[in-house]
Design brief:
By secondary structure, the protein is mostly helical. The N and C termini lie far apart (65 Å). The protein is globular, with a radius of gyration of 20 Å. Helix 2 packs antiparallel against helix 3 (83-102) and helix 6 packs parallel to helix 12. It has 13 helices and no strands.
Length: 367
């Protein structure tokens, strides 16, 4: 009986991915037609843009429609998946992202909207961290501290995916990598409904990627990147909580917080890095610039596709490493991951300085 059930779920997983990808795939041509007719193009004059011709940035509309339709059609409703609150949050975030893609939204308004939907998910949906799992010596969290930390995590990840959406295919490929990994993890611990949510967003992104890989015909815009960040944040919190140690309960996957950080290390590290640099330079954290890791890889002469594949490969390698050494504990693994990222970033800085100065001098490591 269990084998039949497992087979049934696997068939359902394939259906969810194909259905979600198909919906996105068939919607995008219509979006492209409307965008061209109404001249809804990306801002060519902006200094961060990498393209010479107008490209619509409404691909997230297709991703949003596909994801929500798939969730409703496949009836992903379970106590572990507060579907109603997830859909409410995604709709509110979609409206904000769409307005930003069409006419712009100031950062304080976006920040407020993100805070509101985070409150909805954390308090009403009860999607939150209840423990620090021994990181910095902290275990169980008081309710208020649990709410604050969970809201900060959700908002960090929403913005992290928004910030890495700077070159063709990067946010899409990262979203696929993250959510496929979560889906496999949820299947492993028999949380099938959560796996379906991860696969629904994966399929939606797959249908979009066909049009976004270099040379891109359409961008996902804020409507897409914010939604991917939201779903990834929810799945990350659920993954960590479901593998919690305590009350004579042993987790299916050890060091879950470290595994979650490894899965999301690309967006997390790049966001923390640029926020830190802007802070020490007295620049507001949401000020746009060309100092993201993907921009720096392009300065080396890499193409969009090469930079995307390098960052995607690094992400996968981080997950494999943490899963292989998860017995070392969360603190050690998280410090190790960030240590490797800092070294890699230092190496990238050295390479850029050496290229600009036409010299491999040792001083390029420091100044």
């Amino acid at each position: 009986m269990s084998e039949f059930l497992n087979t049934h779920y696997y068939v359902y997983y394939v259906f969810i991915i194909c259905f979600s990808a198909f919906i996105t795939y068939i919607i995008i041509p219509s979006i492209l037609h409307v965008a061209r007719a109404r001249h809804l193009y990306d801002d060519l004059g902006h200094f961060r843009k990498q393209h010479d011709q107008g490209i619509p940035r409404l691909g997230g509309v297709a991703i949003f429609v596909s994801f929500n339709l798939t969730i409703l059609v496949c009836s992903v409703i379970n106590q572990s998946v507060p579907t109603s609150y997830l859909l409410i949050a995604s709709i509110i975030l979609f409206a904000t992202g769409l307005k930003d893609d069409l006419s712009g939204v100031n950062s304080s308004t976006k920040f407020l909207i993100q805070f509101i939907i985070s409150l909805i998910l954390v308090i009403m949906g009860d999607i939150r961290l209840t423990s620090m799992y021994g990181i910095f010596g902290v275990f169980e969290l008081p309710y208020i501290a649990s709410i604050i930390i969970s809201i900060l995590v959700i908002m960090l990840l929403i913005n992290a995916f928004n910030l890495i959406d700077g070159i063709d295919g990067l946010a899409a490929l990262t979203g696929i990598t993250v959510n496929v990994t979560f889906a496999i993890s949820f299947i492993y611990i028999k949380e099938y409904e959560l796996a379906m949510v991860a696969l629904a967003i994966t399929g939606a992104i797959l249908g979009f990627l066909k049009y976004n890989i270099t040379p891109a015909k359409i961008f996902m815009g804020d409507t897409g990147s914010l939604l991917i960040g939201l779903i990834s944040a929810v799945l990350a919190l659920k993954f960590i909580e479901l593998n919690k140690v305590g009350n004579n309960r042993f987790p299916e996957i050890y060091s879950a917080p470290a595994v979650a950080v490894a899965i999301l290390i690309g967006p997390i590290f790049d966001t923390l890095r640029v926020f830190f640099i802007r802070a020490i330079n007295g620049i507001p954290p949401f000020t746009a610039d060309r100092n993201h890791i993907h921009h720096r890889l392009l300065k080396l002469g890499l193409t969009h596709l090469q930079a995307t594949l390098i960052l995607g490969g690094f992400n996968i390698l981080a997950v494999i490493t943490v899963l292989s050494f998860n017995s070392y504990g969360n603190y050690v693994l998280i410090m190790f991951i960030f240590g490797v990222c800092l070294l890699a970033n230092w190496g990238l800085t050295f390479t850029l300085r050496s290229k600009e100065r036409h010299s491999l001098a040792l001083r390029n490591l420091f100044v």
